[in-house]
Amino acid sequence: xxxxxxxxxxxxxxxxxxxxxxxxxxxxxxxxxxxxxxxxxxxxxxxxxxxxxxxxxxxxxxxxxxxxxxxxxxxxxx
Length: 78
Fold this sequence. Notes:
The protein is α+β, with helices and mostly antiparallel strands. Helices cover 33% and strands 35% of the residues. The protein is globular and about 35 Å long.
């Protein structure tokens, strides 16, 4: 599971075996884990994050969306 980026306490990564799903990224902080779609950026699975933190994470993803999407396509070959 390659890490695409780290920002503050967050690690943004993908699973190599999720080739059948649309572009997305997983976000982890400690034991919290969420999933966000990249086209358009939206919450796929909020995990146990609080709503205000999910909003902050979504803004981080929106600011880096092009880089995350490029890395997703590069790694998964799609």
